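note to self: the first set is below, dont mix up w the second
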Amino acid sequence: MTTATQSSSPVSQFFTRIGDNIGRWPTKYIFLFFMALAAVIACVSWGQSQDMALHTRYNNFVIFKHSFFHLIHNQDLYTLYQPEYYDLYKYSPSFALCMGVFAWLPDLPGLILFNVANAVVLIIAVRKLPFSQKNLNIFLLLILIETMISFTSSQVNALITGLLVLAWYFLENDKPWWATLFIVITFYIKIFGIVGLALCLLYPSRWKSALATICWIIVIGIMPLLVVSPNQLLFLYKSWGTLLSHDHGASVGVSLYGWWHTWFGFNMNKQWFVLIGALLFCLPLLRVGSWSQPVYRLHMLASILIWVVIFNHKGESPTYVIAMAGIGIWYYTQAPTRSNLVLLLLALVFTSFSSTDLITPYKVARTWVEPYAVKAVFCSIIWFKLIWDLTFRAQSIKLRAES
């Protein structure tokens, strides 16, 4: 490690001064800013949709909202309802049931509460991370742009990020029932959340976690029986499975596969590609002796958060709040190095800055950033470095000392 060299570097001194200034901000005001931002973005999305003839700018929320009514009216959730919205509902019947909390409200208050709920779960989770005030503030700013993109798209990615971080927190505190509850919830929202169960292997309560997981999968899976018959629920799960199986080959997404495919003409069976990614993900687990290290477990959490995005064949820009949270955890839980700082800044520029009109012109984003999966590039590079370090350097990685 070259921390002594870094401390005399003008670049490092520049970022240290910025970090010190940000660290003096009261964190509670940043939390309030996130919640206010969630509400404001909801209002703007609703306002801009009032002059639209057919659909809205918050189409995802409309999909989620109508899924509840389709559920209670015994309709197929997984077919296109063109007059109501564009695109398809792709989540579980259980998630459709939970959307009943918001579905009964008019669009504006429902959308505000939906976005704010996402923000609240994310904030609660982030507060559990072992960060100093300075690093917590910087971490929040690091994920700010991606969080805004998720809110603008009325997506659930901030919620999923928060749930996976909370799962880590409860495992750290030997509460496997709570931890597995949050992981199973992510599965019933977006199935890739099930990767979070890998965290359970790192703790002595792994058998309790296995039992709890089975129980939660059953309990949450049959929750829609409150409003539909067993035959209808079985039909919905079959329909969901059919949709997902057909959906898998539809695109390459803003993902690692999408990056290699658009840049280098890479072609491979996607199932095999994901399988190889899963095997690489599991490599660090061979270092059983490292499981007891707090930084190792945090970096496995970071690996999960990045993996579920870059290996998602349907990855899109709003999902990158999950990956950037993983990158922030990777960087701010270990002693800083010059190479890690460079990778962090490159990820910030090419993942987050490339997605905002304030920095990247809209034409550039549409012509280059999105079609060429630029957002996935440095997230993927960092993930490969993370896997290498966890597999071959786990003993030398130390938890960053708090100040």
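second set (the one i keep forgetting abt)
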Amino acid sequence: MPTPFRHTRPPSPKSAAGRTAEVFEQIAVDFGIERPPTFVVLSSAPELLAPAWALMRESLIAGAGSRTGKELAALGVSLANKCPFCADAHTVLLHATGDHALAEHLARGGTPENEEHARVLDWGRRTRVPGAALVPYPFPREQAPAYLGTALAFHFINRIVSALLTEQLLPGNAQRFRAVRSLAGRSVARTVRRSAVPGTALPLLDKPGPGPDWAAGTPVGPAYDALRTAALAGADLLDADDRTLVRETLWAWDGSHPPVVLRGFPSRRERPAARLAVLAALAPYRIAEEDVAAWRGARHSDASLVRLVAYGAFAAVERIETTMRAPVTRP
């Protein structure tokens, strides 16, 4: 069977032990899918696995608000980031919520007929653009930690998936067929429709801080803080000049996707680490074998590659999150 992984060969989840095994056990219970490649690919750098899962769980799965609404927000993010794997996954999960007609309408490229649903989907799309007008929210303000956490979780996950997985959610792209989408959704429907207890993922984390003000008082805050700490630790794979270049590139970014010809990107030959980090942030689906090979050589392991991609991915998340702060914290 072909592997779903690109550029890496993560360890078999069947051999997982300790904290990694605990994370996979919780994913199976609360996500309804055993060893999803979305998280298996992070297990090469296990310090990233638990916080990435925790942020998704505490926002999308256990956070306030309807699961349908948060799936729509995540779908909007995934469409904006051009991540077909995740977009297909959220369509399947809408089947799991019981919103079959909505799922199929969206799978055909339609816009939700329900105005509230349409506004949430559009809001998710617009979160890719730093500084976009995201208020008033298309959801109650008290649900903002869960919705913002969901959006930011998938800005990270989309980039990991686009960089390190193939685009096929199911073998042979079987999710293209309505019957398969419906069946896949129904297979996890019981889990998706079950209420999840908030905070269950936090014991998997190593002393996280409270997190940003917009998530204050919810488990989303510590989960976000833990992922931020783990992902940005990948900065140690770049020198000071490369870190400055990545930071300056992100602050100048307007949310657009780069053109076909990557003019102005760091040189593959001269600055391969910076190139990978910037691609992971802005266009992870453009990472090529040549980019990885130019940086990797004999010195860098799969764990290092996952950490570098995660660093670039979270640099984009942090750029987006900083523009969310002011409107969220106003009384």
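remember for set 2: Confidence is low (pLDDT under 50) at residues 326-331.
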